Structure formats: C-alpha cells, structure tokens
Amino acid sequence: MSQYDVIVIGGGPAGYPAAIRAGQNKLKVACIDEWVNKDGSYAFGGTCLNAGCIPSKALLESSELVHRAQHEFAVHGIKVGDVSVDVATMQKRRAGIVKASTQGISSLFKAAGVTGLQGHGKLLKGNKVEFTGKDGKKEELTAKHVILASGSSPTELKSMPFDGKQIVDSWGALEFDTVPKRLCVVGAGVIGLELGSVWRRLGSEVVVLEALETFLPAADGAVSKEALKHFKKLGLDIRLGAKVSGADKSASGVKLKYTDAKGEQTLEVDKVVVAIGRRPFTKDLLGDGTGVQIDERGFIKVDHDCKTDAANVWAVGDVVRGPMLAHKGKEEGVMVADLIAGKIAEVNYKTIPSVIYTAPEIAWVGLTEEEVKKSGRGYKVGSFPFLASGRARAMEATAGFAKIVAATDDDEILGVHIIGPMAGELIAEAVLAMEYSASTEDLQRTIHAHPTLSEAVHEAALNADKIAIDFP
Ligand code: FAD
C-alpha cells in the first residue's frame, strides 16, 4: 500500500496547484486525475485547460482577429481584401495550445516532486483512497490528508439533452469543425457570451436565449447596460425572459421551443449550445462513511478554510461554494496545501476578480454600485470613458469605461468595474488595491504611465472626488 502525506483527487486548476504547493512544502504528494480527451488521451489540467479557459481564449483571440481584419484594419489604412476563415487551422492552433498547456503540468509535477496518477480516485473511510488506473487495476493508497478537487460538469436542460452533435455543451462548441450558419446559445452568462461572440465573429447568425429578464445581473448595472449595447452591435440577437421548453431535431436542424412575454415561440437553428451553468461533480468520489457532507445543491460542504466535515479531508475549486473560477480554485488549493504544512494562509473571497473575455472585455472586483447602495453605506462613484484615453484612441478601442465605487466615510475602494480594452488585465491593479484596503486617494497618488489604458483607472479614482484631469 503506497503512503502519502497528501493525495489530491482532481488535477484541474484547483487540484494541480494544491499538489505542486504540497510538493514545494516537502510533503510526499500524489495527484489523481481521470480527465480523458475526445481522442482518448488522458490529460491533467481539468476543465480549464482542456475544455474551458484556455481553448475558449484561443478561439476568442482568433475570432477577434478576424473581426478586426474585417472591420478595423481599413481605418488604419491596411487593405486586406476579403478575409476568409480556415476553421481547421484555427482549431489545430487551439488544440496545440491546449496540448502544450496540459503537458506543461507533467513537467511542473516533476519539478515539485509530485506523483501524477492518471485514473479514478475515490475517498474511502479512514483517509484511504482507492485508485483505479487506466488499465482498470485497483490499488489502495493512504494519506495523512486528502484534498478533493473534482470540479464541475455542464448542466443539461432536461427538455433538450446533449447529443454531442446538434445540441452540445461548451466543450462541444469549442470543437466545431465548421462555422454553423444558425446557432442558438441557451444562457447569456459568461460562457454563453464568450462562445456566442466566437461563432458570431466567425460568421454564424447567433441567437442567445436567456431565461432571466435582466442581462448580466451579477455585473454592475452600468456595465451590463453598456455590454448589452456592444453585444447587440456585434450582431448577437439576445432575447431576455426566454424560457426554453424543448426541441425537435431533424436532419436539417433543431426547432427550439421557448416562451417569452409574448407567449410560445419557435426558433430554427443548425446547432444549439447549452450554457446554463455548471454543477459540482462528485460522481463516485466518496465511499461509504467518509464523513464528507454534501449540501442541498450538490457542493461538498466546507468551512472558510476549505475543511470538510471529515478530519484531514479538504475540498477546493468548483466542487465547493463560491464562484466557479479557475483562479478562485487555484488560491484555495494553494491555501490548503500551506495550511496542511502548518503555514498561515487564507483566501480573501472579497477580492476575487471576474472577467468576461469578450470585446469589449468586462472585468470587476468587489461590490457593484447597486450592492453598495443596498447596504446603506454612503458612497461615491468615479468613472472615466475610454473615449477620453489617448492610448485607447490610438488602439481604436474607445468603447466602455472604468468605474470605481468607494465609501464616503473612509474613502475605501469597495468595487471596481471595467468594460473596455484589456479590462481583464487592468482589473489586477484594482484587486491589489482592494487587497491592501486602498482608498481612492491611494490610487489618485499612484503614478500611472502615459499613455496607457491603466490611466483610465487612475482618472476614475480622481473622478470619484471630481478632480479628474482628462475628463470634466
Ligand atoms: P475542473 O477544472 O473541473 O477539474 C477537475 C478535475 O478532476 C477534472 O480533470 C476531472 O476529470 C477530475 N476528476 C473529477 N472526479 C475525479 C475522480 N473521482 N478521480 C479522478 N479525477 C477526477 N474560469 C476562469 O477563471 N476563467 C475563464 O476564462 C474561464 N473560462 C471558462 C470557459 C469555459 C468554456 C468553461 C466551461 C469554464 C471556464 N472557466 C473559466 C471555469 C473554470 O474552467 C473552472 O472554474 C475550473 O476549471 C475549476 O477548476 P477545478 O480544478 O475545481 O475543476
């Protein structure tokens, strides 16, 4: 029986960093992962590297280039003629990026002394783990600590199950080998908007059906309003308050049925991407009597430090409460590996940034203006439009703004909301500022290079006290 200090079940962005940090902490660690790609190959990296963050960003980048070549190059005086898209090459590039990223994990494991085990892991009573290898052979392992990082899986619509061809999940939508003429995306969340943007820019007619009446309710109100305007300009036909009730499939496509304020509607498309959310994945993860509890929504119950109800069993990432984001899982994994090694560690759940990698990009951290208003705390707002940024103008990327919400009593920054070029990069400054409980005055007094997009954050901080220089 192999004995470890730590066994991690799940090698996604929550599990593999936990294993690496445990190795860096000189603990004997194994990381078990069962991810199998469509070609039958095993790969570490979980959803994020194989079927999520990385492949979606690869295609977002390619499709954005197509869009810019078609709509923006001429303004720069660049003539390219007709732009055509070779989907096979685009997908080959996407697959290459994924492969390089997942293979990189094996090297990282080697450097940190982590034993990577490919196959299924199941927690048994008494901190034992049953490992089933690729060949089906079972082995019992023991560990002083077990970290569960089994992630999540896409939620299916009962009325319209995935068939992998006409009705697909987000993974399927990342691997289309041709551009669908008519595409329906069910769900106007982050994943739906990113995938809808990719295929729209590549030429699909895209209808997005969203059951909620409000667009992007998690974002600051001003940001969602601005975003909706730009998605419509891109040609995404976003229909809010549209509840899908079923679909009829035929060789020529899918006839979707949905209801909205006007009653029953139908929509004929070639393919449907269902992106209505993700569920915690715990299938065959827990044996009898482990003591690990699952809550009513299917998440593994953990405390603030990611401890489960079972002694020395921890859980991190999408399988526990909190936003389903790779960086949230990574920080939880690293925290747990440090806590196991007796170090001080904590995740600050108030400063987890959210990013939507569309064009314009959307990013935020902290509270929205609506949330601050509801809290009753006195607040001030500072905004700065990218239209007033010299760098944004030089980039032909003047859509959007940066907005800061801060407390009036002590000037603390409570939330930062950006829609515009490189918003996902710009938000890092706001995260750092909030991590150190910075005030708008701290940002106001920080020198930002000129001309950079980051000046928009600086000017928004100045604008919170109505002393912006480049904006009235
Ligand atoms: P996962 O990545 O799901 O990994 C869990 C791993 O555990 C998998 O490999 C699984 O096979 C394995 N596993 C499960 N059970 C067992 C078992 N019993 N034995 C062995 N192995 C097991 N997040 C971002 O932060 N930024 C983005 O840009 C972003 N884009 C996304 C785009 C798409 C299309 C999707 C679908 C998701 C995106 N996400 C993004 C979300 C992100 O992918 C997840 O939050 C992240 O992958 C969660 O990490 P995890 O390690 O908890 O779980």
From TrEMBL:
**Keyword set includes Flavoprotein:** yes
Which positions in this protein are listed as binding FAD? K57, G121, D318, M324, L325, A326, H327
Question: What is annotated as the active site?
Answer: H450 (proton acceptor)
Q: Which residues cross the membrane?
A: none
Disulphide bonds annotated for this chain are C48-C53
Gene3D superfamilies, from UniProt? 3.30.390.30, FAD/NAD(P)-binding domain
User: Which reactions appear under catalytic activity for this entry?
Assistant: N(6)-[(R)-dihydrolipoyl]-L-lysyl-[protein] + NAD(+) = N(6)-[(R)-lipoyl]-L-lysyl-[protein] + NADH + H(+)
UniProt keyword Phosphoprotein, yes or no: no
Tell me which InterPro entries the record gives: Class-I_Pyr_Nuc-Dis_Oxidored, FAD/NAD-bd_sf, FAD/NAD-binding_dom, FAD/NAD-linked_Rdtase_dimer_sf, Lipoamide_DH, Pyr_nuc-diS_OxRdtase, Pyr_nucl-diS_OxRdtase_dimer, Pyr_OxRdtase_I_AS
Q: Which GO terms describe its cellular component?
A: cytoplasm
**What are the residue boundaries of the Pyridine nucleotide-disulphide oxidoreductase dimerisation domain, all occurrences included?**
352-461
According to its UniProt entry, one GO biological process term is:
2-oxoglutarate metabolic process
Enzyme Commission designation: 1.8.1.4
Which cofactor does this sequence's record say it needs?
Answer: FAD
Which amino acid positions bind NAD(+), per UniProt? G187, A188, G189, V190, I191, G192, L193, E194, E210, G277
The molecular function terms of the Gene Ontology recorded here are:
dihydrolipoyl dehydrogenase (NADH) activity; flavin adenine dinucleotide binding
Q: Which UniProt keywords apply?
A: Cytoplasm, Disulfide bond, FAD, Flavoprotein, NAD, Nucleotide-binding, Oxidoreductase, Redox-active center
Q: How is the cofactor bound?
A: Binds 1 FAD per subunit.
Q: Where is the FAD/NAD(P)-binding domain?
A: 4-333
**UniProt main location, coarse:** cytoplasm
Where in or outside the cell? Cytoplasm
Family per record = Belongs to the class-I pyridine nucleotide-disulfide oxidoreductase family.
The record's annotation in PANTHER family points to:
DIHYDROLIPOYL DEHYDROGENASE (PTHR22912:SF224), DISULFIDE OXIDOREDUCTASE (PTHR22912)
What protein name does the entry list? Dihydrolipoyl dehydrogenase
